[in-house]
Amino acid sequence: MNQRIQGLGNRLAEVSRRDFIKWCSAAAVYLGLPAGMGEKIAEAATAPQRPPVLWLSAQECTGCGETLLRANHPTLETLILDVISLEYYETLNTGAGHQAEEARVEAMKKYEGQYILVVDGSIPVKDDGIYCKIGGKTALSLLEEMGSKAFATIAIGSCSSWGGVPSADPNPTGATPVHQIFKDKGIKTPVVNIPGCPPNPYNFLGTVLYFLTLKKLPELDAELRPKFAYGRLIHENCERRPHFDAGRFAKQFGDEGHRQGHCLYMLGCKGPETFNNCPAILFNDVGSGAWPVGTGHPCFGCSEKGVGFHAPLHSPARPIYVTPPTLYASVFPEQGKGASGTAAALAAGIAGAVIGAGAAMAKNLGKSSEDGGEEK
Ligand code: SF4
User: Fold this and answer.
1) Cα–Cα distance between 133 and 145 in angstroms, integer?
2) Which residues does 283 contact at the CB level (< 8 Å), separation at least 6?
3) Residue nearest atom 5 in ligand 1 by C-alpha distance
4) Which atom of ligand 1 is nearest to the CA of 270?
5) Which of 25, 218, 236, 271 sits at a 20 to 30 Å CA gap from 105?
6) What is the pTM of this model?
7) Average pLDDT for residues 301-314, to the nearest whole number?
8) Cα–Cα separations (whole angstroms), residue 174 to 26, 72, 148, 168
9) Residue 74 above 50 pLDDT?
10) What share of the chain is helix, strand, coil (3-state, %, to 5)?
11) CATH of range 2-230; options 3.20.20.70, 3.40.50.700, 3.40.50.300, 3.30.470.20
């Protein structure tokens, strides 16, 4: 199987050693490791012994697999194919039917207790799991069989992490996350959740790299998510946060606030209750703004249990905590009455520190507002 999919890309060799080490050092920092660990990551990523991976797909849309395969960074794109030994994955299998089933069973036997199981999609448990079958077996029985013999399991995407879209009310199939099934069945294999719809591919790849390098799983939070990726609220790193703190909100799609890039909280942004690193690492390697809020749509909390696919799309978020800002501007400033004392003093202070002209700045700011200028 691995030989068949290797043809999809082996560009790791095309990257210069220097660039590769540089990338590994950046990856070390991203994973919360000292930069010096870059060398170790490089060694682990190029080791001839690659960890076997079996991938099980249940109630899913293949978006999680797509997000990995379409990662634009060339080294990461090939990393998943060159660094691990992908033994079974229905989306990439060239064999089908009995041939694919045999490959799965053979790989499980050969690598018992050593392979990493990756699961995308939720597991239906209602009516003995009949709503999702692969090769005549329910996803429920396959998960039990494959999960109990794995070294570790990575639940990729919101569906396998906490239920995702199939678990939306009224959850007709009894969609259940992987870790819950393990708990119910007494399976002790450790689980890492990488939620998102789809998740950022680098959060998955980072977890694999961490495991390869340190031979252990990264530190997890209470929801079994790697802290290096899900340690902060989206709201904490959002580029629109200064507008939130200043009380500047878009109130309707397409209004002036929306066009000016103001905060999307009033349009239902769930950033204040969703833990993820979307604004920090972005998507598709195309530069700034390449994430939902960056393009003008409120975060809908796809990665957060009880928020995405459960809370109404445009209902206000229930902020978990809001880091206090250093100052609050007036939410509804009076227009055309001159700058407020606080705003003028602040502007003067900042300007003064830089050019030593604080008093003149305060005076001019007040004057321009009296002349009809808008307070900024
Ligand atoms: S509410 Fe949403 S748009 Fe506004 S700052 Fe927070 S995350 Fe960004």
Assistant:
1) 14
2) 200, 290, 291
3) 241
4) 2
5) 218
6) 0.80
7) 96
8) 41, 35, 21, 10
9) no
10) 45, 10, 45
11) 3.40.50.700
